[in-house]
Amino acid sequence: MRVLVVTAVPAERDAVVRGVVSATETATEAGAGAEAAEAEVSVPGGRTLHRVVRSPLTVDALAAGVGPAAAAAATATALTAAELGQTPYGLVVSAGIGGGFAPAPLGSVVVGEAIVAADLGAETPDGFAAVTELGFGTVEHLPPPALVRAVAEATGAVRGAVLTVSTVTGSAERAAELRRRHPGAAAEAMEGFGVAEAAAAHSMPAAPGVPGAHGVPGVPVLELRAISNAVGPRDRAAWRIGEALDALAGAFRHLPSALATWKGPSR
Predict the structure, then answer these.
(1) Is 85 a member of any domain?
(2) Which burial class, exposed, middle or buried, applies to 126 when counting CB atoms under 10 A from its CB (0-12, 13-18, 19+)?
(3) What does each C-alpha distance from 98 to 106, 191, 224, 230, 244 come to in angstroms?
(4) Who has the most CB within 10 Å: 86, 129, 197, 242?
């Protein structure tokens, strides 16, 4: 399987790579095959993927920039480049650190049961109206439930919705409003919905050797967030970014084993 992991910034990408490499080193020490190979691969747009290969898994980690627009553009470019190179991805993962809602404490990991655009819509006299209530668009993507379960079991992650926002929450009032509108929310971040939109818009190629087979709309998507701060009043002194990056690396150390139990996308 080929997996594209999209983060916002290089520090998150490096944590992902550290975790995947650690997983492959552990497997090699246990006598499960060759060591991992690493490489830097240029992609259109002036970005560079950090690739970790240990058959049968290839993980490409990409720092796309902050926010849903940058994430969507970089993800779409990487998916298209991979397909043109006849090396398509079977899974896209949005990953990084983020804010946590209870019961996700600092240093924990959240796996998204839903990836939700929390502020895509309009303010009305009756309050916020999601874009779907206005009659167009979508505000939610659902990762494969079996994959979410496998990753949660392998990593010990909290399961819940991950909210994508363009403005990070900085007050108790907004945090309470988000929880009121999304009672199942476990984390807040800024890129997941953009990654999911790009994955949903991309078609997986047809199964090889199957006469008449057609591409399947959408590439499966997952979101993993390590919690660096509580969603609410902005208090930089209370953030635990280093701990969250270590937790992110720890989660990706277990990703290969979780993927091994997942049957992958159906065609």
Answers:
(1) yes
(2) exposed
(3) 10, 10, 9, 9, 8
(4) 197
The C-alpha atoms of residue 241 and residue 226 are separated, in whole angstroms, by: 9
pLDDT at 212: 37
What confidence category does residue 211 fall into, taking pLDDT thresholds of 50, 70 and 90?
Answer: very low
Angle at 26 between CA 24 and CA 32, to 5 degrees: 75
List the one residue out of 94, 88, 73 whose CA is nearest residue 203.
Answer: 88
> Pick from 253, 204, 215, 196: which is nearest to 87 by CA?
204
User: What digits encode the pLDDT tens for the residues 153-201?
Assistant: 999 999 999 999 999 999 999 999 999 999 999 999 999 999 999 999 9
On whether the CB atoms of residues 71 and 16 are closer than 8 A, the answer is no
CATH of the domain at 93: 3.40.50.1580
CA distance 118 to 131: 10
